[in-house]
Structures
1.
Amino acid sequence: MGVGIAIVAARAGFTVRVFDTSSEALDRAHEQTADFLKKSVARGKLSPSDRDATLARLIGSTRIADLADCEFVIEAIYENLTAKHDLFGQLDQVCPPETIFASNTSTISITEIAAGSGRADRFVGMHFCLPAQLMRLVEMSPGLNTSDETWRAAWAFCEALGQKPVATSDTPGFVLNYFLIPYHNDAIRLVEQGVASPADIDIAMKAAMGYPMGPFELLDLVGADTQKLLCDAMFGLTNEKRAACPPLIRRMIAAGHLGKKSGRGFHHYDDSKMFGA
Amino acid sequence: MPVNVIITGRSRSFPKDVPPMPGSGTVLAGTAAADVISGAAKACLDFVAVELNNECLGDHIGLDADPIAARIVGFARFRLGTADPSNLIELVSMDWTDEDAVAAAKAAFEGGGFVVACCADRPGRIVNRLIRPYFNAVLRRLDDGLASAADMDKTLMLGLGYPEGPNALLARTGLADHHEVTAVLEGALGDNDFTPARRAQIAWQRASK
């Protein structure tokens, strides 16, 4: 998801440092970005010169020290509080005091993540929606210690990205994932119970409700591994049974059926190009 | 040869016209459709499709394999409360239903311009099983003060591309109808995620006066 957020920022004119510990992941991100922007040009959404400029504004790095000149850092790693604390702890050593930190978490408390960042007053939640490069919504959540100044600056930055911020409270899943994670789990349980196939469920939900994507199309985009992490985080916080990870997700992870990124999830895919590419 | 359509009583799937459907079969729609199943089954060509409301196909033909009933399928055109029917046909079969009958019924509905999703004979079929707990959660969290109805709707529409938010949708199509469907599913499934939310209970009580 970090790739989609990076595209949003670069497309809006910001110089973006894309940090990943894996150079292979960075190469893959660059390839996915180039594919997506190429398609944007083909669709008339972007001029060739803007495509080139956007790509030029994206600078990949595997060294966290390269983020030292960033004014705003958006974290989009997996949903694990310890891992996020570790990353923000390193960033706090590298970035100047005025740099604002944001987390793209969709389930974990912003206040709890901020508590391990070394700068809880300059910390906000910025939850982008999948696919980030196409969806405009950002759920903005302040932590208990977020300063008014930080909140205003983050809100203005979000608008400068060309996104539509919506203020949500710092509660598990905020608004979107509070409803989406259990809904997806319910759909998975229908498959487990043999009520219908993923394809038929996708067909039904799109035709009945006018949804642009069926639950399994979206789940394949999210990834089975990410869905499990979302479930574990959400269930751990709410103890609501609909949020508990269905056994089928665990089996799919074991089988390597992670979704679009692995070529097979609930559906089969011929490539791992980004949505919209 | 068009499919023979028999409407007995009020039909939720076909409140107005029934589009012509190609094929060799019979569609039984309306509140009294189940009363004529057995006669239609004996005379049936490729399939008999009987309209379902909140009940299951098994309520009409039993759960045990039956050679005469093997060509009977159930169907429901999804419709939310007072809204117009959607274009979705949920096509219901038993595990012993003749596969050719399911294929013929599917082809007939698709030939009539509908989108068809196949499913097993379970309470709520596909759509109600998925949207009712979600609607209940929305109504409960609205009571909890998670966000205003407008902000919740805006977030779900912008974030997921939904054409309408759940609060506006339920207000437009009827909370009392949501109560009616969820109460049936709660009874059939014994799952309190289907217990009608407080706002739906109030709407139902007021509508019943």
2.
Amino acid sequence: MAYVATRGGERAIEQAERMYRAQTGRITPSRVKEIGAALPALVDRVMGEASLYAPDLAALALAQSGGDLYEALLLLRAWRTTQPRLQVAEPVAADEGFTHRRISAAFKDIPGGQILGPTLDYAHRLLATQVLEGEAYKPAAVTPAATPAPARHPSLAAWQVAQGLVEPPMADPVDRDAIPDLTREPLLFPAKRAHTLQSLARADTGGTLALGYSAMRGYGTAHPTVNELRLSEVEVRVRHPRGVTFSAGRVKTSQAEVVTTKGKDRLRLGFAATLGWNEVKVISAATLDLNSPGAPKNSPVNEEFFLYHTEPVESSGFCIHFKLPHYVTFQSSLDALRGAQAKKEAPTPAKTEETA
Amino acid sequence: MFDRTTDPDDALLSVLARAGAEAIRAEAEAVLPQLGEVEVIRSRTGLVMLPMRDPVQGTEFHLGEVLVAEAHVRLPEHGVEGYGMVTGRDLERAMAMAVLDAGLQAGVEAARIRAFADAQRAAQQAEDHETLRRIEATRVDMETF
């Protein structure tokens, strides 16, 4: 790949940007607020991929990009670099969140029970066309139970460890400031598990789904069953200068464990989590995690393959860069092609000459 | 975490951090005149990296960063400091928390601030209770045939 400086076109470039922005028109605080209120799933998806939990800013980025998710992500990832890192919060355990939804497809009677939470899993998918005829769609209110659900639910993996069904977690605790961080160090292979899980947490939902789905369909090494899917709000526990710890607020997180019986003598688990509620992403990403040990090089479940190809800013940026002027490289290839054609048409010489 | 046993200061600060923007601002404004001079050491937005522990191998990894507003104040007449941090970008909310924290440290309007925190705690617990009742309504008991 080669780059070349070009000149000219300033006026066209200016007008082209105006033309793009004219599609979305004026961006007002009320529009941003409406996006945040009306599209929580999209806001969550963008926050997870941006690796930045800031619902107002994610809604603004969506308004400004006209809903182009990769543009929105780029705005958020760029904005993030303007902010100082104040501290690293206390690590949260997978079973510590204020749980809104927690289900298992592998075990029917899990400790704590199955809580569906907010989901369309069992709903009819009917387009509410009456809205276009002027009739508002008003969802029915939840009828609360007499007693509250427990705020916390035990981890299914912990129960499986106790049952001798899976290997116990072996990693030693790490000082929170020493946890490997992809925003400050490169992704190298074989990847540290902390890098793999961080990379999946900020991965592109669509990319993760495509590669995870390929594994589910048989291009992987293990078929997943959802061991546990959990949507929670976790506390962001920070240090006060006096040395005590407190929660600065809650953020939404999704977690998935997927399981396969294809172990030596135990169940084997894959895991993924992300900021925001995004089930497709964590199930796909956990499937990739489950499939990656021992995966053949260049297969979709090889960690180098899926981590590189699901990084949303790099992949979308590389794709759209092909629209930018490549005149010199393309002309050079074209010259070589024409040279080859000319040689083919010319009478066969005694000896072919190498093209420069 | 939600129901983890914590040092009382810790729980109180968590309650202040979750208090509604208008309520905490009004409370801080009411307490402010009694505090004397308030020196602002810091008032800014920034990021807090949030790690999670992987339940499969026990590895700690970064989920992503959370935007927070942070405020740090000093009361020179009392020789104490106050600190606030809240998720989001509302600097005034963080400042109000820092002012109330400083008031508690200085023992100025401490009873009032504790009463405010108690009321907020009750409201937050009631809100959680109602949310958990709605969540409980989605508990499912599947039968296999």
3.
Amino acid sequence: MRRPLALAILAVLLPVLTGCGLRSGAAVSESGWTDKVDQTLGAAISSLGTTEVVLKNQANGHLTRSYVVVAVRDSQRTLAKEVQTFGSKQPPASKVADKRTAMRALGHALAVLDSASNAASGADIAARRTALLEVERTYQELSTLQTRLTGGGG
Amino acid sequence: MKKLLSLALGILTAIGGFVDIGDLVVNAQVGARFDLSMGLVVAVGVLGICVFAEMSGRVAVCSKRPTFDLVRERLGPRMGLLNLVASLIVTALTFVAEIGGVALALALISSVNPLLIVPLVGLMVWLVLWRAKFSLMENVLGLLGLALIVFAVALWKLGPDWGDLGHQMFTAAKPGDETWTTYAYYAVALFGAAMTPYEVFFFSSGGVEEGWEEKDLSTMRANVFVGFPLGGLLSLAIAGCASTLFGPLGVDVASLSQVALPVGVALGKIGLAVVLVGFVAATFGAACETGLSTGYSLGQYFGWQWGKYVKPGGATRFHLVLVVATFLAVGILMTGVDPILVTEASVVGSAVALPLTYFPILVVANDKDYMGEHINGPLANALGTVYLVLVVLAAVAALPLLVITGMGS
């Protein structure tokens, strides 16, 4: 009775553990690197895009303050996680400069989201407007960078 | 008149209770990335859950006994144990995800850190499981879950190109920047979210708890064949909202706050308040259902006294399982694990466990000793067999796809 059960559990766990092992590998091929850049910059664009919609609708009075605070915080957390993973990846030798550029842009995106989070939770309408403009500008910059580094529309 | 009201109530609670954290998250993720190109997967999944829920409801009516009890008796303890382990792991994982979902939803209302809310949610879920009447729990949470209809209103207000949405639904084309493996991964996840095993166990065990008889068959079928598909339409509305708002911006859905955003944009603070009530009700209801399902499955397999119609003192082991499961779920969430990640894992896990869950139901529903004149007909068997092939394919593909796509990233 125990053997089939143990085999079934092993059959479920093995691919999952193998998958975890595969995902934590450090060596990245050139195409794998491009995919990773695409994914991470995509996550940044996604977080900034969400924050842009949230701030615009906060300005229109469509969203509650509690919701806005959590939504912007969620965007920050999502991006921070992606940046952390990206930072630990070793690029191919020809892409080291690209990684530096991407990391700089991602650091800026995190700082912009941090300012947006502070502005969204405060009562200063001018600060919120400034934060929104900065989010919009960074969204555009990252979209351009994504196209440049991945050679596509992302 | 009373029967009609009970029928309407059953259908409404089936609609409101259909959507859980897995449906909320996966439908929004898929909508944002693939538009409505996976609408047919939702339709196939909903038909599948209808087929097997009706079958297990019929088994409960005819045998007056719950599914696990019959599976163990009919297929032997080994097969029963395999069935128990597979569905218990997935149900427990879903229980963790649902409690996390309630905490995330309450955090959107209060802006308090979800980690601080999790223990409170665990306590509330356990209190409801311990003290609240089964029908009260099912009806109140199911009806409040109807608040999620606000997604359909929001979709209409967002004003999508309806022709385009219809075209996407029936062409199943993937966007150019996505790979077929990612597409397949999300299709399997969506299928797993629609056919979550606990729904069938909860449905049939609930039938035994409520003492369904042959005269209740028509009500049960109406709940399944009207309520579930309407619940499936809610899933499509969630995907449609995400597609309309997020698709053009290239935004991926990674949090529950994003799932609610289209409603806030379309309907303002009132819409946002309604959708958050819907989130809390849907996830809290599903947390109660999954929590009970862990107790049901163990109690029924080992032959303990089980159920909410028995006083806690008369079903101590059943209630002990509920307490332990709630403690474990809260403990896991308190480690800081992302409930959305747990949700994604639980829907893929569901896909893996599907054959072990649904094959025994098909076998029992074909046993004349249990079913008498209500044994499966040719249509139920044909559909059941087709779905068995589908769930085996989904189960085989789920883990390799999860690994290859890095959880769909």
4.
Amino acid sequence: MTIWILIKSLIIGGLVGFSVSAGAARMYHIPKTQGMGAFRTLGELNACQGDPASHFSFGLGVFFNAWANTVAGGALTGDVGHRVIPNWSAAIVLLKGKDPEKTLHNPKKMAITGAIVGALVVAFLNVTASSIPTSLQEVASEVLVPAADWFLNPVMPAIFWLAAIDGGRRTGIYGTLFGGLAHLVMGNAVPGLVLGILIGKGVDDTGWSRMSKIIITAIVLLFIFSGFFRGFDIELLQSLNITVPNWLEDLHQIFGYEVE
Amino acid sequence: MGNQSSNGELANKDFWYADWSFPIFTTLLASGIFAGTHMYYVHGTGVFNEISILAMLRVGMEGGGYGAAAAFGASFLFARILEGSLVGILDIGGSMMTGIGIGLPALILAAGFTLPLTSFPVALITGALLGLAIGLIIITIRKYTIGQGGSSFGADILMGAGNQAGRFFGPLIIVSACAASIPIGIGSILGALIFYGMNKPIIGGAILGAMLLGYFFPIT
């Protein structure tokens, strides 16, 4: 069992480390090159640029937190990909050559180093996390599951709702509209709020551009389809004391939904 | 070893700098991230995301429905693809860790397919194909929009709200631990205090403290 976790982790870590580190080096060449990572990562890499010790200790600082999260919840945290792997790869390539232009900014060197760093980091985290006794994991899930349920509802909807309202008039309007509808139709407001923020901000920044129109069409279709397949239309009619027309019942039956 | 002195020339030709090679990098990354979610699905560890976002997927895995995880992850992915091609940096947190690692697995599981998450090779291939698609979409959008700037489609707001919501998870864990049993609650409080004292997010300490005391005083 553990040997499989080790092997899989080495492969996964190698893949992730390779591409994350190459993407990080490519970030130094935007806009000519498409990079991947995060502006946050770029800023942090710049903050300790050129000094291997700073890169290493920065990565180490978040590594312990990542370790705690992996042991506790099986989650490697975003820090592993955003901070630990890029910064440790940077530290190693900078040890070999002091000039960041030729090392940290070089996707090839970063990718190869990153693959090794990633494989070791991911393997270490997963193997140590999987070796803890099952009784401990039971305690972890005993604590985590209720917290996760509360988190999903009502904490996340409330926070995203406030973010939509604070994001501007348009995100507030679309967020409230789609968020409310999403809770009615899908049972959780977050998807609707996210979509409301997406379309609200898109229209704020680019107007009713072609992209905005495509997005709003997709959102409307999403609501129509998920409403239909969850039988929301039937429930709506029934709760308003309106008789459900036969053709609608038949339509639902085609897709396997039984109308009571 | 390429000569980097003429970067402008290389940008169009050299594999490591070219646009055409970008989908290869997204393919590899998505393959790894998706397989990481497979690891969690099968072995209980290895997902590349925060515990708070993983919690959404977990709710689905325990029978509570994948809707929230799927919608959150997929729309985050969508926003980040648009933004990434416009600004030149694809945010791997939203697109890969949340989109590929949480949203798309939730969609796939919600649709009733479990093989991509139970089999390691299938997970690698599924992730690779999804990553390839993302890379190709970005390069295509980039062809038409390069230099136009534009909108982040609210990705910054989503990230802010995601981080804000994530902060709630620490206190929720302590409350949940206190409801589980008295020793676990005490452990969780002490763990959170220690982590807070060390300027670390309290969530890690809260869980570790709860587990430590839970080891000596198991829930009966």
